[in-house]
Amino acid sequence: MSHDIREAENRVVRHSGLEMAEHWAIALSGLVLLLSGMFELPMAARYRITALPGLAWSGDFIASLYVHYAASLVFIAAACFHLAYHGLRGESGLLPEKGDLRASIAVIKTFFGKGEEPPFGKYLPEQRLAYLGMAVTIAVLILSGLVKTYKNVFAPDLDYTLVLWATWLHNAFFVLFILAFVAHIGALLLHPNWPMIRGIFTGTVRLDYARRRHPLWMAALEPPSAPPAPVEAPSEAAPESAPESVTVATEADLPPSPAEEAPVPPEDEPDGAART
Amino acid sequence: MKASLKLNRRAFLSTAGGAALIGAAGALGMPREAMACRGRLATLIDLTRCDGCDGQAIAACVSACKTVKAGDVPQPVDPIPVPFPSRKVEDWSKRQAVSDRLTPYTLIYIQKAEVERGGRKTTVFVPRRCMHCDNPACATLCPFSSNHKFENGAVVIDPETCFGGAKCKTVCPWEIPQRQSGIGIYLKVLPTLMGNGVMYKCDLCQDLLEAGKTPACIAACPRQAMAIGPREEIVARSEALAKRIGGHLYGREENGGTSTLYVSPVSFADLNAAVQTGPGRPHLRPVARRMAGSDALGKAVLAAPALGVAAGVAGAFAAISRRKDRSGKEE
Question: What is the interface pTM, i.e. ipTM, of the complex?
């Protein structure tokens, strides 16, 4: 059994510390970029945002620029780290797979009571599609932002056509980034996804949830030879539990035998960073 | 409409990008003289020569500018939408004749300063317009890149895409750009909620420069108080003149450097104290470039991709190496 499974705590590690650091670095700096980007429009003074406590600086375009630069430093470094680190390690679990679009539509229908969810791997098909969409959005924002920054610092007379492309791509993808952010938060508000919220804060999700909804992921973590054992009800109340309609019971749902609980050599390094 | 703005917008809108820019320029048969304005230019304003066309109702440079720019500002809609929540409408269309301050219809005007020089009262006239800064925040911070600095040094607003949010005016140390409400693209978007017209300022007669001609104000000056030419030449000429008369320079260092150099027989501190300043009437104080402080952070942002990739590569190889060590031990 993988060391990621903490049977006694009814937990399974979904995100390593490094992955959570990447996620939160990008999420928090992205949020600051959204706000400071909006303040680069002449709106904070007009709409009296400057009167709000702690936001007096929002009407100062150059102060907003400092904030925007500082946040983009974190945002760009974290995004490039993510790309290089996981790319070199061949971790492609979040990249879309064939049939994800159709599967996503089917899953979305289940949120409205139509049909049943299929068994999932670690990530839902719509998560993989959303990841690609967010990655493209972030890539365009970064590239266009770098052109704008280069212009600000070194070349105010940069070719105007290039400046127009960079500006309008930045503006258009800024809107897409807001929509992607809203969709991301919206997905977390869906009841079946609630157990994953804990995961992005603590790195772990409930084991019974993972076995019920992500059996394909758990099958990869738990050896197929695991002998069946009686299912014990999870000790926690289950506001996070999956819908009753989703009942994918596999051998992986079952707690391991004592033999399995013997120390197992880790399949990955201690930070578990290969889980993406 | 300025040819350079047209060309660049066309190239931007064309999916062929740079190829389209070259093609469009060729198709339009851009004159050879147009290329001449692509070098860095600067202007010299010699205050020892300018007499403000004293005695005339309106100075020749101001009059020439108004003539060459006549019709550039379209007639605003009636009624002009009232912006929410500020309710501030700036309508100069009924005051187009105003010539004692900057307005959308007056892109250059003459400031008058009565100062003491060598125990004698003397009058200095200061033609005022956009300074065409070397690194203008008004252009670099425009959220729609409607304002751009061109290779020849001219900072030009594109009235077709300007929303009139007046950010350029806010970040300009002299608050040069002036707004006309009730015109422009904002009327087609969210007229009461976003934007408020179009910003106007001197564009150094970019269209005349591109045609190999001299800006109207410079050409019209009866005392040759203004000159335009290659930047190095104008800077050298300004410095030599200032040295020769024991005078003062303004515009060389201001706001990080500009393409407009004033040479005055009296100090600019004295001039600043004597001229009338306020909305549309810029000061003559020393000005630091506020954005300069953000340049170091901007450079760090430009280095961020390399930092991130380097850290990612190092981390990945360290992790792969640890994994290999571990599997070696297990074997």
Answer: 0.87
